[in-house]
Specification:
Chain A is α/β, with parallel strands linked by helices. The first copy, chain A, has nine helices and 13 strands.
Chain lengths: 303, 303
Amino acid sequence: MSRVLVTGATGFVGRHALQPLLEAGYDVHAVSSAPAASPATDGVTWHRADLLGDPAGVVRDVRPQRLLHLAWYAEHGRFWTSLENLRWVEATLALVRAFAAAGGERAVCAGTCAEYDWTTGAATLAEDAPLRPATLYGTAKHATHQMLDAAAPELGIALAWGRVFFLYGPGEDERRLVGSVASALTRGQRALTGDGSQIRDVMYVADAGAAFAALVGADVRGPVNVASGEAQTLRGVVEATGRLVGRPDLLDIGALLTRPGDPDALVADVTRLRDEVGFRPRVALEDGLAATVEWWRAQPPTS
Amino acid sequence: MSRVLVTGATGFVGRHALQPLLEAGYDVHAVSSAPAASPATDGVTWHRADLLGDPAGVVRDVRPQRLLHLAWYAEHGRFWTSLENLRWVEATLALVRAFAAAGGERAVCAGTCAEYDWTTGAATLAEDAPLRPATLYGTAKHATHQMLDAAAPELGIALAWGRVFFLYGPGEDERRLVGSVASALTRGQRALTGDGSQIRDVMYVADAGAAFAALVGADVRGPVNVASGEAQTLRGVVEATGRLVGRPDLLDIGALLTRPGDPDALVADVTRLRDEVGFRPRVALEDGLAATVEWWRAQPPTS
């Protein structure tokens, strides 16, 4: 039985990778700096570690054959420019070096659509589209991929790099689009949004977790878009959320300005994920939004 | 008096940056893992530190306003592909973060001409030429620059990145071109070289050290080629070395094969270094080679 170590395993995406990895037959080890927050997943072995302080220790203890590295700084609004990105680059390089030194064979890491050039106006972004990150976050992720890709032969590992597009689902930050709309409407409050004309590739977070689990078990190397491949207007997403809550009357679409420089369309070409990894999203937008709304309904009221 | 910390200060280039920095009026602090090897330079304060083990400590102790970071893994033949490159990326990010946190204002780091795309056939490489490193070394340097450049506003520092081309001079590794020819001829041994048809930008190492010292004192940000701007054939360099030793008869030019993929020409556009930094190389090729030959003559015979 092959052993896999999952970092960021209590995170928005990571918690959804655990069950698919168990079902694929892996001996699943998960690392978190706060195991108290661990999702209750029978069969997962949890390890407490601070990857920023000691990135190598947990790898030396677990000696996994495969690594799914999802941990990164993700504080909403701050992660685009935070210097924490540099600390996570340092930790990631040290983690993957230690993984390789301990006999690791295949590493899968989380990249981002923010690595791509968003100014080309391309209808869809395939993995070989121009890369030109405009933020420290995108730059740090892109630089990490370049380095690990160049180092993979010397490390003696296979490397796949999942470029995540736009995700939504239970546990999403309340300041992000679906989170803000769903949390407001389920509390009977108005939800103010931009005009929603932007076209985005949105994926249900559990599908993203399952896609990463599939990447762990695949042979594919290099960048792979982790996305739905479907173009949605944000207005459509917001309106569907309003219908599902049953309070479309509380929507105030167009009340907020669109951020300057926000591109009209960001949609992934998912040919690699579909044909080379063999993964297809299972959760339709309407179903994913319904589950998200249910999750927000179940949250205790905030003060 | 502004305080500058120099890393790699006992290295091939670094030792030549100290005197120009002293002459420019800096309070010069130098760090080395082996201060016993320190060049005797009156007025320099030496610190012993292992930058790979504790990159931040020396910065917290010295609290410099300026940083000249030249230290990197440079083992001949190995540095192109070594995983030590990743360790130096980690150390460099941590070092510059600590420098900024301790009040640092301006950092100058060493990049490389190996960041450029060597396959374009361009007559000269300006700083905005396409970047496409073909090696782990070039990739690691390029990635580090991308990240530090993107992080500079958050770090609150100015960053300049000196892209070094081809250097020669005293102390050069005996397995590099000028080092191998000069060491062989001064010992009365034959020197075997390739056909020498390649055109390269070669700079005397003391000029490179002085150029970096000038970069520390300049206002320029971003990449700056550290090079002579002059095109030399390697054959011309080798033949001049033969004449200066007085043993051109020992040259066997064309005895070795040229490495596959070695580009025909690599010459820097030095407009930025000349006009924006105000630096011009002081040592003509003939004089630099003469000094190099003298240095080899003074070396004790090897067993």
